[in-house]
Design a protein that fits this description.
By secondary structure, this protein is mostly helical. Helix content is 68%, strand content 2%. It has two domains: 80 residues; 117 residues, no CATH class. Helix 1 runs antiparallel to helix 2 and helix 3 packs across helix 4. GO terms for molecular function: DNA binding; transposase activity.
Length: 211
């Protein structure tokens, strides 16, 4: 509310609401598929895989098809809107940001490009928050924000820390300084969201100078 006083009074436009619904459903199906694969693995360890092999295979095929259908719908909505298509192109130009991450950023963070980098980090829950009381007193930690979006950005940061040469050097410096893995990935994710926010604000694609 501090970043956008009009938030809560203006609903996102129809295409954003539709994208949000589709990405949410896709996420639910992906989680269901993960649980199914875990169950299949457990059946294998227990020696009961043969009992459910056909049933599990049929369910996995169904989930695969439904996820693919949702992804096609998402791509069609983005492609049909010039502004959304341009934003998606900008986001996907950044090594580490793929179709899933770009769609989630578009659907769950319509403020992208209209706010500061610090505000973008705060909205995704990647800005360090100082604790002034309790057991965490004197320490800083991330929290709040849009949890689903933060999870996607963590996944993007993992990829970027190895395949985006600018962010790989940034991550390597932190690792050399002895920072724990979680701290490194959180810092990369925070830098990543500030970069994509700036790119969207300037309507420019990624270059190695973007960071």
């Amino acid at each position: 509310m501090a970043f956008r006083p009009d938030a809560g009074r203006n609903l996102p436009h129809e295409k954003i609401r539709l994208l949000r619904a589709l990405t949410s459903k896709r996420g639910q199906l992906v989680e269901t598929r993960k649980r199914l694969l875990a169950q299949i693995k457990a059946h294998g360890k227990l020696g009961s895989a043969d009992m459910f092999e056909d049933m599990d295979a049929e369910l996995k095929d169904l989930l695969d098809r439904q996820i693919t259908e949702l992804e096609v719908q998402i791509e069609e909505i983005i492609a049909a809107d010039e502004s959304l298509a341009r934003t998606a192109s900008i986001l996907r130009s950044v090594p580490g940001i793929g179709p899933v991450a770009s769609t989630m950023l578009i659907a769950e963070m319509p403020e992208l490009g209209q706010i500061s980098g610090e505000q973008a980090a705060a909205l995704t829950g990647l800005a360090p928050i100082a604790h002034d009381s309790g057991a965490m007193r004197g320490r800083r930690a991330i929290g709040g924000g849009r949890r689903l979006l933060r999870h996607v950005l963590f996944q993007a940061a993992l990829v970027a820390s190895h395949h985006n040469q600018v962010l790989k050097r940034f991550a390597d410096r932190l690792r050399t300084a002895g920072k724990p893995h979680k701290v490194v990935i959180t810092a990369v994710a925070r830098k990543l969201v500030t970069i994509v926010n700036a790119l969207c604000k300037n309507r420019q694609k990624w270059t190695t100078q973007s960071a």
